[in-house]
From TrEMBL:
Domain SpoVR protein-like N-terminal: residue ranges: 12-354, 500-564
Domain SpoVR-like C-terminal: start-end pairs: 568-619
InterPro entries xref list: Spore_V_R, SpoVR-like_C, SpoVR_N
Lineage: Archaea, Methanobacteriati, Methanobacteriota, Stenosarchaea group, Halobacteria
Name the record gives this protein: Stage V sporulation protein R
């Protein structure tokens, strides 16, 4: 009879060295990951972990079983195999599937090390760990939440069904948090809809008192804080600021509907505990949802450098690894691995090309107009190739590397070279020297590895300089000054910083999320070279058609897909709508209509957390049958009319009403402004 635990232990023992060496290589490449603890699990255990969203202990709930059944069927029918699962924690925990081949396991380990680096360094993941703790401590915090909710369910005075129903309601609204702020931020904000239209401590009288306290001169006061300015503040205060964290608002101001009394009553303390626990977990998972493209692309990029570029996959494993990578990048639909990998490579290539162009434009006689005629791009590519000893680092180039080390070349690890030479001459036991046959990267430093993998020296990117346009050259030249000129092309290329592309990747990794990442780096060139396009449903043709190949259209479509996790953005507009204690939510309309069936179901969930009637303001586009028929005859899309709608749920039935124009104007947007920078989002 097969002993699964024994097999897992044997498999884990064989992976100890690859895990250790992958960590050493990752750090040599400049990554700074959380410590990672690896576990080998079988199919059922992996399915359980996926069902529990990457953790071994969660709160009791029926949906974990549903998740398990779905994953189990997918695994059994070959619809999708999970190679690994890793969570954002310090230390991170990575679970590897026992049935993976050795090549797959190595690929997974290098992938995980890059994920752990992203977790440790991206500021959006840091929002969850912003309460003064050393790290996320996620496994312990989620386990504590599980224990709290299990204890509540075990109480004799609490109906388990009531707890599960509350968990369902809160979970269904988990995407209505304010993911741009720390988990506790919304709890400290004043209620913007307290009936006065302004925060209690920011009334106009308070503003006037503060100005008086400043003891300003009469001239300054007239110049800056005149009556016109004060009147403007009063007018602005009449409009409540929408509140993005709907769950926090429901937690702080909501009640529970008592069907026996037919009215809203205060919650029991255990109900608030449940809301807090589920909301906190929503913030943990927000970082992963906000950076799916960046994170998966980052892990895929460094996996390819380690497995392919540095030969972490041995000669007998490389074909298996190549097939593994082809399957990952070849998955259909919007593939975050592929899109992210290509965007990171695009940034790397742009950074390197900009550095080279800036230096070449400083060469005497080279201008944007003469660049392509005066610069021999073939010679440039050859000049940017890594030093032969760096490119072929290993036993065969040991003497050449030793010469570089004696010259204090920063690209060479002099100590590692010295130990390798001692082993070769018999002065040192091979067990105490670097294994340069299997891990030649140990002979190089970060600078050496950056040159070895310099993007413009890779065959697939050798045409990057040839593709640069005169407009781009003129734009770069506009910021050039008559300093640091080079007498020759050779002198200019000698100053090229081959670490600059990777250092730029590290900078981008720290502050961006998927929306800002795509907004800043998805360029015309990227769309053109990647053959990206948008498609949409044609009402006239009753089919999907290619809509545009324009970069701005592609970007806009992707941004809509990733803003607010790709879900509608809902905010609190009024907590005392109609002066009846009813809740008015607003849909930040961006041209994409709500699914009305889901909207009505969501309002029923909100009612459970508010206890009184709830409303949702949105906009939809209505088409007349005649307009659709006419458009089909002409082969065009019909023109619709945007109409404001207010959906209402009062605890018994859902109704639909015309929306007040002032509210429709408040939620409508002709365009969506994504021109924001990461620091602004994190302010």
């Amino acid at each position: 009879m097969r002993d699964g635990r024994l097999d897992a232990k044997r498999e884990a023992a064989t992976l100890a060295e690859p895990a250790r060496e992958a960590r050493a290589l990752a750090e040599r490449l400049g990554l700074t990951p959380y410590p990672v603890r690896y576990w080998v699990v079988d199919h059922d255990e992996m399915n359980e972990l996926i069902a529990y969203e990457g953790f071994q202990r969660r709160y009791p709930h029926w949906r974990w079983g549903m998740n398990y059944e779905r994953q189990h069927k997918s695994d059994r029918h070959g619809l999708g195999k999970a190679f690994e699962i890793v969570n954002n924690d310090d230390p991170a925990h990575a679970f590897l599937q026992e049935s993976n081949t050795t090549a797959d396991q190595k690929a997974v380990i290098t992938h995980v090390e890059a994920h752990a680096d992203f977790f440790a360094n991206n500021r959006w993941f840091g929002l969850y760990a912003s309460r003064g703790e050393d790290g996320p401590n996620a496994a312990a915090r989620l386990a504590r939440n599980g224990d709290k909710l299990a204890a509540i369910m075990a109480r004799s005075d609490v109906d388990r069904d009531d707890v599960e129903r509350l968990i369902d309601a809160v979970s269904s609204l988990s995407d209505t948090i304010d993911q741009h702020r720390p988990v506790d931020a919304a709890r400290t904000r004043p209620d913007p809809t307290d009936g006065t239209g302004m925060a209690a401590d920011e009334s106009l009288a308070t503003i006037r008192e503060r100005i008086d306290d400043l003891d300003l001169s009469e001239s300054v006061r007239r110049e800056v804080f005149d009556e016109e300015w004060l009147d403007a503040q009063e007018q602005d205060a009449d409009v409540a600021e929408p509140r993005p964290d709907v769950l926090a608002y429901l937690r702080d101001h909501g009640k529970r509907y008592d069907p026996e009394g037919g009215k809203a009553v205060d919650r029991e303390p255990w109900e608030t505990t449940v809301i807090d626990a589920i909301r906190e977990e929503a913030y943990y998972f927000a970082g992963q949802k906000l950076t799916k493209v960046m994170n998966e692309g980052w892990a895929t990029y460094w996996e390819s450098i380690m497995m392919g570029g540095e030969g972490f996959a041995g000669p007998d494993e490389f074909l298996t690894y190549a097939d593994h990578m082809a399957r990952v990048l070849g998955s259909p639909g919007l593939n975050p691995y592929k899109l992210g990998f290509e965007l990171w490579t695009h940034i790397e290539r742009l950074t390197a090309r900009r550095d080279v162009i800036d230096r070449l434009l400083r060469v005497e006689g080279i201008t944007p107009e003469t660049f392509h005629s005066r610069v021999d791009l073939g010679e440039i590519t050859e000049s940017l190739a890594p030093h032969p000893a760096i490119a072929g680092a290993g036993p065969a180039t040991l003497d050449a590397l030793a010469d570089l080390a004696r010259a204090n070349d920063p690209r060479v690890d002099a100590d590692a070279v010295d130990r390798a030479l001692s082993v070769r001459t018999g002065d040192r036991d091979p067990a105490h020297g670097p294994d340069i046959e299997r891990y030649p990267w140990k002979l190089l430093t970060f600078e050496g590895l950056a040159e070895r993998h310099y993007v413009l020296s890779r065959p697939e990117h050798c045409g990057a300089l040839r593709a640069v346009s005169r407009a781009t050259l003129q734009e770069r030249a506009r910021y050039m000054f008559d300093v640091d000129r080079y007498p020759t092309v050779e002198a200019a290329l000698a100053d090229v910083d081959r670490t600059a592309p990777w250092r730029r990747l590290f900078e981008v990794r720290e502050s961006h999320n998927d929306v800002t990442f795509i907004d800043e780096f998805l360029t015309d060139e990227f769309v053109r070279e990647g053959n990206y396009f948008t498609y949409e449903y044609s009402r006239a043709g009753d089919e999907f058609r290619v809509a545009s190949v324009d970069a701005e259209d592609v970007k806009r479509k992707l941004l809509l897909r990733f803003t607010n996790f790709g879900k509608p953005t809902i905010v609190v507009l009024d907590g005392n709508y109609g002066n009846r204690g009813e809740l008015l939510l607003g849909h930040r309309y961006n041209g994409v209509a709500l699914d009305e069936t889901q909207t009505k179901a969501a309002l029923e969930r909100v009612f459970e957390l508010w206890g009184r009637p709830v409303h949702l303001a949105t906009i939809r586009t209505e088409y007349t049958e005649e307009a659709v028929r006419r458009a089909r005859r002409r082969g065009r899309e019909p023109t619709g009319r945007e109409v404001g709608v207010r959906f209402t749920y009062d605890g018994e039935e859902s109704t639909e009403h015309e929306l007040e124009k002032s509210i429709a104007d408040q939620i409508a947007a002709e365009t969506v402004d994504y021109d924001t920078k990461p620091d602004e989002w994190l302010a």
